[in-house]
Amino acid sequence: MTVDQSARRTTVTTTGGTGSQRQYLVLGVVVLLLALLPLVLPEERQGVAVRTLIFAILAVSWNVMSGYGGMFSFGHAAFFGIGAYVDAYLLVDHGISPWVAMVVGAAAAALFGVATAYASLRYKLAGAYFALATFAFAQMLLLLVSNLSSLRGTEGYNVPILSESSWSKIQFPQGDSRYYWIPLGLLAIAVAVKIALVNSRAGQFVVAARDDATAAEALGIPVMRYRLLAVAISSAIAAVAGVYYVQYYLFVGPDNAFGGSVSIEAIVPAVIGGVGTIWGPLVGAAIVGPLSELTSTLLRNPPAALAFLEGKAGLDVITYAVLLIAIVIFLPRGVYGSLKARFGR
Amino acid sequence: MSSRRKTLAVLAVAGLALAGCSSSGGTSNSTSGSGSGGASGETITVGSIHPLTGALAGAGQLMQDATEMAAADINAAGGIKGLSGAQLKIASGDSQGKAETGQSEAQRLTQSGAVALVGTYQSDVTKNVASVAERSQVPLVIDVAVDDSILAQGYKYSFRIQPNATGMGTSGADDLAGIGEQGGSPIKTVSYIHIQGAFGDSVFTAFKKEAEAKGITIAKEVAYDSGSLNDAATQVAQAAAPKPDAIVVTGYYPDSLLIAKSIAALKPDVKAVYGIANGGFDDDSFPGAAGAAGNGLLSANYHYDATSARVKDIRTRFEAKYGKPMETAAMLSYQAVEVVAAGLDKSGSKDPKKLRDAISALELSDPLLAFDGPIKFDETGQNTNATVIVMQIQGGKVEQVYPQKFKTVDLKFPAKPGAS
What we know:
The complex is a heterodimer.
Chain A: H1 5-14, H2 17-35, H3 37-40, H4 46-68, H5 77-94, H6 98-122, H7 127-147, E1 157-158, H8 178-199, H9 201-211, H10 213-218, H11 223-249, E2 251-252, H12 254-258, H13 260-273, H14 280-288, H15 291-300, H16 315-330, H17 334-343
Antiparallel strand pairs in A: 1-2
Helix pairs in contact in A: 2-8, 4-8, 4-11, 4-13, 4-14, 5-6, 5-7, 5-11, 6-7, 6-11, 8-9, 8-11, 9-11, 13-14, 13-17, 15-16
Chain B: H1 3-22, E1 43-50, H2 57-76, E2 87-94, H3 99-111, E3 116-119, H4 123-136, E4 140-142, E5 158-160, H5 165-182, E6 189-195, H6 198-213, E7 217-224, H7 233-240, E8 246-250, H8 253-266, E9 272-276, H9 286-290, E10 298-301, H10 309-322, H11 328-347, H12 352-360, E11 389-394, E12 397-402
Parallel strand pairs in B: 1-2, 1-3, 3-4, 4-5, 6-7, 6-8, 8-9, 9-10
Antiparallel strand pairs in B: 10-11, 11-12
Helix pairs in contact in B: 2-11, 3-4, 5-6, 7-8, 11-12
Keywords (chain A): Cell membrane, Membrane, Transmembrane, Transmembrane helix
InterPro entries (chain A): ABC_transp_permease, LivM-like
Subcellular location (chain A): Cell membrane
C-alpha cells in the first residue's frame, strides 16, 4: 500500500548528501539533549520515559517498512516478540548476554519478516490484505508460543534478578540512569540507520517501489528485492526493541510479546507524528508515550474545575482516539509532517 | 482525504478499538484521603495496584475500594498502635491489566514512598510487580494471583495469602474424596475438564497426583482453549463418555458457564459436578446466570468465611458503601491491607526491610477467609494455612457446605447436575 502523497514529496526533498549530514547533526543534538533528561526527571517517572523510548524505537521500525516501504504492517508484534523471546530464551535458559540476543534476535526477526513478506507479496497481497496477513502472522506466533512448553507456554519467562549491576546482562539497580541511556542509544542507532537508508540509492529504490511499483519495475528496479530489504531492516530494529523490553521489565509472556496491543503501539506514534518522515515517529512517541501518564495524573488529582473526572476510566484511550481522528482530519501528514509541509521549504 | 489515507485512518482507529478492548488505557485511580489528618499526624502510605481499567476493571475497582475501606477501618480503630497511632493511606496504581504498566506503577509507588504494596489480581502482572518489590526491597502482599511460579523465584519480599494453584488442586482432591465418603457414595473415577495454560495445567497436575494417592482414577482429561470455546458440548460429551463418578472443571467464568449449561443439556449420569479453583461456580452472580443449570454444582475454592461475624459486618458495610457485593477477591485485598498493618504494628517501624521481616514472622488469627488456621507465611512467602473449602449452589445461592466447621447449609450429595 502506498502510504501517502505528501510523504513522497518530503522524502524526495530531504534526499541528498548535505541533507543527510544535516539530519545526522539534528539527531546528534536531539540525542544529547534527551540524554540530559534523567538529570531533571524525577526517578519515579523513569518508567514512563523508558516505555516511551521503547515504543519510539518500534515506531521508527514500523515507519521503515510501512512509511517508506509502503507495506502497511499490522503485525509488528511478531518481530518485537521474536526479539523478546530470543533474549528470554538465551538469557534465562542459557545465560547468554542480551547484547548477543540483540544480534541473534534481529537476524531471526529479519529472516521471519523476509519470509512472510515474500510469501505475502509473491501472492500480490496489498493494502488491507497485506496488513491483515501481517496481523495473522503475529497471531500465529502468539498461539504457537502459548502452546509450546519448551518456551514455557503461557507462563512466560522471568529474568532472574542479580544481586549486583552487570553491563553484560544489562541489569542495574532500579532507577539507574543507564536503563534510560541504553534505549536512547538504541533509538539513536535506529534513526541513524533510517537516515542512511533513506539517503542511499537502495532507499530511493524502496521509495520508488512504494510510489509506483509498476513504473519502478519498468525502469529495471528489482522491486521485490528492495521491498524485502526494507522489511528486513524494519524487523531487525523491532526485534532490538523487544530484547530491551525484556531487559527492562524482566518478564515476558506471549501477550506482552506478540499481543495485538504491541502492534498498535508501533503504529500510533508513527501515524500521529507523521508517516514516512524521519522525525515523525519520534515526535509521535513524545506525544503518545507520556499521554496515559498525564491523563492518569490528571485523574488522580484533578483540579477543582475538573473534579467530575475523578474516578473516570479510559480517558487516555478517548484522548488517543480524539487525537487520532483530529490528526487524520486536520493534520493528515501527522504533527511533524504537517508542520514541515507548512513551515519547511 | 485520499482513499488510502482513509484506509490508514480506519485501520488505526480499529486498532485503537482493539487495544481498548484488550487493555484499555486511562486511569481512574484516586488516592484516598481517608488516612490524612490522623491523631499522631504521621501518615504511612501503602501502594495498591489493580486493573482499574480494561477488561478486568470491575473486579479491580472493587479490590481497590476494599483496600481503601480496610485503611479507613484501621484508622478509625486508632491507626497503627505500634507506631503511636499512625494513619494508613492508600496510594493507588492502575495496572490496566498490563504487566509493563503494573511494573511502572509499582516503581512509581515505591519510589514515591509506599512502604508496602498490595495487589494485583493477575498472575503475569503480579510477577512483574514482585520483581519490582524485590529490587526496591519493599514488601508485596499478594491478594489474588494463583500461579505457583510467582513465589518460585526465591523472592524474599513477596507474600501470598491465598492458596497457590498446586495447593488448590491438592486440597480439591482431598475434599472431593472426603465428600464422597461423607455421603456414603465414594468417588472412584473422575473426568477433568480444564482450561489450557499455566493455571489449568498446574491445578490439574496437582489434583491428579493427590487423587491417585486417594484411589481416584482419572478417566479422561479434556483440555480446552478458552479463546475457541463457543460451545462446550464436545468437551462435556468427551468427559462423560467413560461414565465417571464426577466431572471436575477448572476454568474462568464464561467457560464455566458454558460447561455448566452443556452438562445440564446432556445430563451425564454423574454423582457430582465439581469445580476446583473455578472462576465461575462460586461467584455470587453465577446461580442467576446459569439458572437451573447451576443447581447442585459443587466448587472447591478459597472463599470468604461466610460463618464469621466479622466478615458479615465488613460485607454489609462494603455493600452499603459501594453498592456492590464484596466478592472473595475484594475480601483478600482487605485482608492484604490488614497483613501490612499487622506487620507495621509488630515492627514498630516504617522501614520496608523491617516491615518485611515482621510480615514473614507474622501469625494473624481470625482470617477473613475460610482457612485451616492463622495466616502465616513459609520461607517462600506462601500462607501455609491457605486452604480451600467446598461450596454448593442451592436454592439459587452459593452456600458453604464442606468441611463441617465452615458450612452454612447441609451438603446435598449425590447432586445430579441440573436437578433442582
